[in-house]
Amino acid sequence: MRLDYYIPSLKLQHRLTAHAIVAEVIAPTLEILPAMLPNLHIRLAGASSYAFGGPVMPAPRVTLLGPTSAAYGMHLAPGTEIVTTGLLPQGWLTFVGAPAAQFSDRIIDATSIWGDCKIDQLCDRLMCAASDTARVAVLESFLLQETRDLSDVTLARTATIDQWLERSAALSLDLLRAELGVSNRQAGRLTLDLYGVSPKTLAMKYRALRAAAIMTAHGEAGLERALEPFADQSHLIRDFRRFVGWTPTAFARDRRNIAYATLEGRSRAGAVRPLSLLS
Known about the structure:
By secondary structure, this protein is α+β, with helices and mostly antiparallel strands. Helix content is 48%, strand content 18%. It has two domains: 2-145, Jelly Rolls (Sandwich), CATH 2.60.120; 152-278, Orthogonal Bundle (Arc Repressor Mutant, subunit A), CATH 1.10.10. Helix 7 packs across helix 9.
């Protein structure tokens, strides 16, 4: 299977994490993806389905995946081709506009957001594009036409939580509440609306994803550093398995897994911002 990543243009970098092209699927494939922010998957050929700890759900041609609170499965049939992009909270609010928690660990038919006509036109243009970079340009053109303005308050709160996720070494919940200037209950509502999970789960998720990024860069040699934010090794293993889908050792040793390929591919494509790399 081929998995190639592309960094969004400057106009969309505050709304999107990274674009990806999935192609050359030779055999039936089950991939375990790490817990992530929302994603848009546009299937141009083949068949795909997803499992979020329960039954396997066939995917519509254009699928919005809500934010995920654990690693999840993606089934791909031979010949499947998918164009994907990840949505930062600003992107989710811009393109969907609903509280993220309503769609956590769910798939949504994108025609319910944009309608059949727009989706048909988008897929036709993507099918006619001559290269991966041309497909990325088509997708970005579509998304730029669908943008909506967000309030200054929403932008400020999103930026505050994003910075906490990217810069807080300990991911302290007390620090998050202080920087937002809100109560525990209000902080919980904000992260549910913007990221689809509670502040505690959000912190757990990004500790595990940070550990995965360290082990992507350093292999098993990075285990000691990856362990630092965790109470002990069993704590790391438990959270890593939940949010990344592997044990840390297996993740570092089997570099063919898609969780590793996602982090390594985004880094190779030039992702610098932590949320774009991890999410």
